[in-house]
């Protein structure tokens, strides 16, 4: 059995179905437009959006600014929040766009943001099954290495789907790719990762 | 077997995107790829990372957002925090009701005092000071406001801690009043008799109009905000300059501006040394700006007080302390130079003093204590 070790000092993870939670908060916001609901939504999505922004621009401070700026904008436009079909994806795209503005300003030239994002913060998969925690630090490292060695586009897709838990259609919107491309890229990613892990297993 | 098909379906499995048909299809394909079964099912069972924020970082993150929202959108965003109750008498429900009684009472008292003063003024013959008409004084204490109808029908709302002097009747060519503090004027139109308000830094001449004047002796700046009509402003120390205001404009006169001026020093040995030194010289700084409309509440910030609203936009805590002192009639002291310079934006609507102070406490994390009716922030 291959299990991935929970890395010491990492925060706990919950099993919250994030999309259900976001939809519910969105419904509340449409009905009430109230600050407490808005802040719940902010806290629910903060870490994911922060990590996403950080991967692209690699500055803690700017990533924080970007996420809070996006939410300030959202608050101002909360009257029309009902028009947003998928709020979570909407926020990812907003964070992406604002991050790109910063990125281009900082680099003074067009750069591939997918490349920047793919090589930003490292993806860390874990399990919250406590029985599994003691096993296979080595394997976890192998997995991390396998992911690190993925081509950029592949890695970006894999990160969004596996780390952020976006659906294919959602990742496609954020990355501006077709769902077909997401499918193919995920296939390539898994093939490479599985082969890399199997190779280390037989060594 | 299509190898790509296997990996596409297997990756759909780890992403939780498999349909029922595809699950069956993948089962068949696994028979050709038995080696990968464990690896893939393990990858499928790894969890999405959904970090939970620690309470401390949650507070920090929320604080950042609230500060931004308050700065960007002060009218709309109200602190959602349920603040813990504090064992203070003002926190009891019904405080505002009692407070309102106190407000009415003190207004009545202020009027009685005004009448007494007026009567005394009438009976006394002032030495050489306009003996042909008697003067009325209306004053409000900190924590109270008052409405006055002048002899010409003009309505004046006096904010807390303010004084208005006006004659018994407007007999001359002009209607002249003197204001110390803040008042909202709705001047009855009379083109033949301009209405003139004398205040600390400026005189304001109007024909018939609605506007607000803020001129507290302990504040450095003096403002006149025009709602309707037109007003003509003359500065006290520049008699020949007149400034016309259009509706929705305000003029601000800062009485003191710190200015760096070169100072020439005679060294005594025949040489003159010129050095730059900070000197405060009385130089009024005048600016004309548009009034600040609060989009959500549809209230012009400058006259929010006439509707019981305390509105702060990017004001230093030092300035806010003065306003609170006037508004609530309680002494508010800030014991930290750093805190005094912090800026705060936010609106309060009928909140009591404790609620206001605690809302600011959330933003700046200060401590405060109440001793002998004096609130000290530190």
User: What is the rounded distance between the termini of chain A?
Assistant: 16 Å
Helical amount of chain A: 55-70%
* Quantity of strands of chain A, as a count: 0
Main sheet attributes: strand count, strand direction, barrel closure of chain A: none
Strand content of chain A: under 5%
CATH structural class of the largest domain in chain A: Mainly Alpha
CATH architectural label of the largest domain in chain B: Sandwich
Radius of gyration of chain B: 32 Å
**Model regions low in confidence, pLDDT < 50 over at least 5 residues of chain B:** 80-99, 122-133, 257-282
Low-confidence stretches of chain A: 1-16, 127-135
The sequence of SSEs of chain B as H and E is HHHHHEEEEEEEEEEEEEEEEEEHEHEHEE
Give the total of domains of chain B: 3
- How much strand of chain B? 25-35%
Apparent shape of chain B: elongated
Distance between the termini of chain B: 75 Å
- Counting helices, strands and paired strands, the structural category of chain A is mainly alpha
Estimate the helix proportion of chain B, in percent: 25-40%
Would you tell me the overall average pLDDT of chain B? Answer: 74
By DSSP (H or I, 4+ residues per run), the number of helices of chain A equals: 9
Identify the CATH architecture of the largest domain in chain A: Orthogonal Bundle
């Amino acid at each position: 059995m291959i299990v991935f070790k929970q890395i010491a000092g990492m925060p706990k993870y919950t099993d919250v179905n994030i999309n259900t939670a976001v939809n519910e908060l969105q419904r509340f916001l449409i009905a009430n437009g109230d600050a407490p609901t808005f802040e719940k939504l902010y806290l629910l999505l903060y870490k994911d959006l922060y990590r996403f922004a950080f991967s692209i621009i690699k500055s803690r401070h700017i990533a924080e600014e970007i996420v809070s700026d996006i939410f300030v904008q959202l608050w101002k436009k909360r009257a029309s929040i009902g028009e947003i079909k998928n709020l979570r994806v909407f926020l990812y795209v907003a964070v992406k766009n604002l991050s790109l503005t910063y990125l281009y300003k900082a680099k003074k030239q067009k750069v591939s943001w997918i490349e920047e994002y793919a090589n930003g913060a490292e993806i860390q998969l874990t399990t919250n099954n406590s029985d599994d925690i003691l096993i296979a630090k080595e394997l976890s490292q192998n997995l991390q290495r396998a992911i690190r060695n993925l081509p950029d586009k592949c890695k970006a897709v894999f990160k969004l789907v596996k780390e952020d838990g976006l659906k294919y259609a959602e990742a496609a919107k954020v990355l501006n790719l077709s769902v077909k491309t997401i499918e193919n890229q995920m296939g390539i990613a898994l093939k490479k990762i599985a082969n890399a892990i199997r190779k280390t297993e037989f060594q | 077997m299509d190898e790509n098909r296997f990996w596409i379906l297997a990756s759909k499995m780890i992403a939780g995107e498999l349909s029922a048909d595809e699950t069956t299809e993948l089962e068949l394909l696994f028979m050709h790829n038995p080696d990968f079964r464990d690896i893939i099912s393990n990858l499928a069972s790894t969890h999405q990372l959904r970090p939970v924020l620690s309470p401390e970082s949650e507070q920090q993150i929320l604080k950042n957002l609230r500060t931004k929202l308050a700065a960007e959108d002060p009218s709309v965003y109200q602190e959602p925090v349920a603040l813990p109750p504090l064992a203070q008498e003002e926190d009891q429900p019904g405080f505002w009701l009692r407070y309102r009684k106190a407000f009415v009472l003190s207004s009545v008292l202020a009027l009685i005092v005004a009448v007494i003063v007026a009567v005394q003024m009438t009976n006394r013959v002032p030495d050489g000071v306009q003996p042909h008409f008697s003067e009325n004084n209306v004053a409000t204490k900190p924590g109270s406001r008052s409405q006055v109808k002048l002899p010409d029908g003009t309505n004046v709302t006096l904010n807390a801690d303010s004084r208005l002097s006006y004659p018994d009747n407007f007999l001359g060519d002009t209607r002249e009043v003197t204001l110390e503090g803040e008042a909202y004027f709705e001047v009855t139109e009379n083109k033949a008799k301009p209405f003139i308000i004398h205040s600390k830094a400026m005189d304001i001449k109007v024909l018939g109009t609605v506007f607000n004047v803020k001129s507290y002796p302990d504040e450095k700046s003096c403002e006149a905000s025009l709602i309707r009509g037109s007003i003509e402003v003359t500065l006290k120390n520049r008699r020949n300059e007149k400034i016309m205001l259009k509706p929705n404009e305000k003029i601000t006169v800062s009485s003191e501006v710190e200015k760096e001026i070169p100072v020439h020093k005679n060294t005594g040995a025949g040489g003159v040394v010129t050095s730059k030194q900070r000197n405060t010289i009385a130089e009024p700084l005048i600016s004309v700006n548009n009034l600040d409309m609060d989009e959500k509440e549809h209230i012009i910030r400058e006259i929010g007080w006439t509707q019981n609203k305390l509105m702060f936009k990017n004001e230093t805590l030092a300035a806010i302390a003065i306003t609170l002192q006037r508004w609530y009639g309680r002494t508010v002291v800030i014991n930290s130079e750093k805190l005094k310079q912090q800026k705060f934006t936010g609106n309060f609507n009928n909140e009591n003093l404790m609620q206001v102070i605690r809302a600011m406490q959330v933003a700046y994390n200060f401590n405060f204590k109440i001793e002998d009716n004096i609130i000290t922030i530190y």
